[in-house]
Amino acid sequence: MGIVKTEDLVYEYIRRDEEGNVEGITRAVDEVNLDIRQGEFIAILGHNGSGKSTLAKHINAILNPTEGTVWVDGMDTGEADKVWEIRQTAGMVFQNPDNQIIGQVVEEDVGFGPENMGIPTKEIWERVEESLKAVGMYEYRRHSPNKLSGGQKQRVSIAGVLAMHPKCIVLDEPTAMLDPSGRREVIRAARALNDVEEVTIILITHYMEEIIYANRVFVMDNGKIAMEGTPREIFSQVEKLKELRLNVPQVTLLAYELKKRGIGLPDGILTTEELAEALERIRP
Amino acid sequence: MSIILDHVNYVYGDGSALEVKALDDICLQIPDGQFVGIIGHTGSGKSTLVQHMNGLLRASSGHIYFNGEDIYDKDYDLKKLRGKVGLVFQYPEHQLFEIDVFTDVCFGPKNLGLDKKETELRAFDALRKVGLPVELYYQSPFELSGGQKRRVAIAGVLAMKPEVLILDEPTAGLDPKGRDEILGQIKELQQETGLTILLVSHSMEDVAEYVDRIIVMNRGSVLFDGLPKEVFSRYKELEAVGLAAPQVTYILHELKARGMDVDVNATTIGEAAESIQKALKSV
Known about the structure:
The structure holds two protein chains of two kinds.
Chain A: E1 4-16, E2 22-36, E3 41-46, H1 52-59, E4 67-72, E5 75-76, H2 83-89, E6 90-93, H3 106-116, H4 121-134, H5 150-162, E7 168-172, H6 180-196, E8 200-204, E9 216-221, E10 224-229, H7 231-235, H8 238-243, H9 250-260, H10 272-282
Parallel strand pairs in A: 3-8, 3-9, 6-7, 7-8
Antiparallel strand pairs in A: 1-2, 1-4, 4-5, 9-10
Chain B: E1 2-12, E2 20-31, E3 35-39, H1 46-53, E4 61-66, E5 69-70, H2 78-84, E6 85-88, H3 101-111, H4 116-129, H5 146-158, E7 164-168, H6 176-193, E8 196-200, H7 204-210, E9 213-218, E10 221-226, H8 228-232, H9 235-240, H10 247-257, H11 269-282
Parallel strand pairs in B: 3-8, 3-9, 6-7, 7-8
Antiparallel strand pairs in B: 1-2, 1-4, 4-5, 9-10
Helix pairs in contact in B: 3-4, 3-5, 4-5
């Protein structure tokens, strides 16, 4: 069994009107089966309302399945006495960094998680140091989080999760509110954690460029997994992605446009180098 | 007519150890009907700048003229200005509160003191302009999707019949289709009605695709101000201030470096494809 596994996962919620009468039931996640291996970099795409955040919230037991089962590192998330252990195994980073930072000083904020776990003081400091170094924020350890940029705050949030030594980190649109350099910093930090520390990363995003290095991509629609594959397999299907309200990276789209104009390029070009090389091959 | 900012400064924490100059000697002119993009890293002063344009923040020094009148004159009606210069904040869906979409959009014009008939006509017109399906007009705004909610919020501002529409990151958190839909509709609106649009954005690709002019903010000052292709040709300097050029610009520079005769000033997919096709044919 992988680090995260779901079996026939269903999540339904009840819609109520102003008076509290039941209006209907919405199925936000519909029979999802996933098996994510330790150390994988997974991306989840899907339009607004496709169910990706609801799915993500099952991975650290913020939500419990209506039907089916979710296991995190072999633990069933439905078992109430496992909740804390599950949340230490699978940490979560949300969209807005301002809602996640509580400390007055960066290092204090990062130490909050391990302190709550009852880790001895000396080890807390060690964990704070290594976590801040891993996301490239060690030199800001004595700063006030208020004075940091969005990208820096988001990296501090990641360090805060990392200090709990999770095996898996779920990032739910961590770059939606950031400027281009902030987005780059956060994605670079996530990739480094995956490469160096072998932390399993599950990244939810609306920015297609961010996931070209993922091992596997899942595309959600209507609560179901609509597509699954490597970034190249997924991004080769431009029309299908557009139907699902998504897009492809700009370089892929450019290659697709050129192909439509009769230039013989392969499908699923993901990087500038690939496009340049493909064009060089066909230049007369 | 137009908006003119004349040596505008904005300082907060004045006189204390935490004094910050959020706007530093800004001189700008925004003519009627232009689609202007404002970019800058987090904290560069973009939002502070646009909040001056409808009088929400008051400059520490300098003058702002709207349609030839100084908005800081003591008889100037700031409430009227806010009807003329509509501001849509970040995550505007958090400001929806009425029981149904239509009532929510009526809120603005009703507060302008318009009668019921005019208010409702304006609300219908605004909802039609943002392309919201009619069957959603009498639903609770909270049951809509993210993109739909955002369109309702924009309609609420449009119903005030502004001459200038300022949008502060209107597409943050939306899926790609939602981004295209909203920006496409805004572009159409600008072309049909001659509305002036100011778009604050973190997406260089979106800005490149839709705007006529880009203003780059950095540390409270205007760093660059020009056509998209002029601004994005300075991509190295943009990177130094936390920004970037659209991905296509980098692709074209790479192709050029490898000896292909492409136009490195293209900033959209369409322009880039055109240029590459031409370069392939000319060999």
